[in-house]
Prior knowledge:
Elements: E1 22-27, H1 36-45, E2 49-54, H2 65-72, E3 94-100, H3 102-109, H4 116-127, E4 131-135, H5 139-142, H6 145-156, E5 160-161, H7 182-188
Parallel strand pairs: 1-2, 1-3, 3-4, 4-5
The structure holds flavin mononucleotide.
Amino acid sequence: MTERTQAGRTPAGEAGKPGKPFLYVVVCAAGIAAEVDKLVGAALERDWEVGVIATPAALNGFFDTTAVETLTGRPIRSAWRTPADPRPFPPPDAVAVAPATFNTINKWAAGIADTLALGTLCEASGLGVPVAVLPCVADALAAHPAYRDSLERLRGMGVRIGEPYTGEPGPDGVRAEFGWERALDLLTGPGAP
Ligand SMILES: Cc1cc2nc3c(=O)[nH]c(=O)nc-3n(C[C@H](O)[C@H](O)[C@H](O)COP(=O)(O)O)c2cc1C
């Protein structure tokens, strides 16, 4: 059972500043995750409250968790709470998955919910909140037919999917910008609440 208000905003007091929409940022274990503070900072500037949910693998040195917790003012979540614990975050008004790995995209599309991040993603579409995903998947993995099927399935669920990004350097040895803010644009573009 969700706890969203009719206006789709978090109830007063839950998110600290009543009326601000609450964004879940789901972070997966891709190298580019080291820059996820760019997405969190941009979301805060656009007046979202932000809570970060990391996959267990992403907590294994992929980004500066202390810096991100300082930015959001909230602990990063990765494990399920115990039944007796209160909900650490309010329910989401939107979800951004960035970076999204091959592994998480395929498991999410298959309906696997064996981590908090995947459970949150599997539930999000059913809650009716907008979900945007920025994949970071190398070409060799992206060629796998299961990956193509997963993207197709997620699109069919209404998930907004950013442009392909390999995370690999171009011929000049330079890696392209990830375009973190695209996740926010996808959430607030046409069709968003
Ligand atoms: C340094 C490093 C960088 C990685 N970068 C990527 C990446 O960009 N995309 C990807 O799909 N997997 C990447 N991986 C592999 C994932 O970490 C691995 O598949 C992991 O199981 C993903 O877990 P998660 O989806 O639960 O976060 C990387 C692994 C390492 C060690």
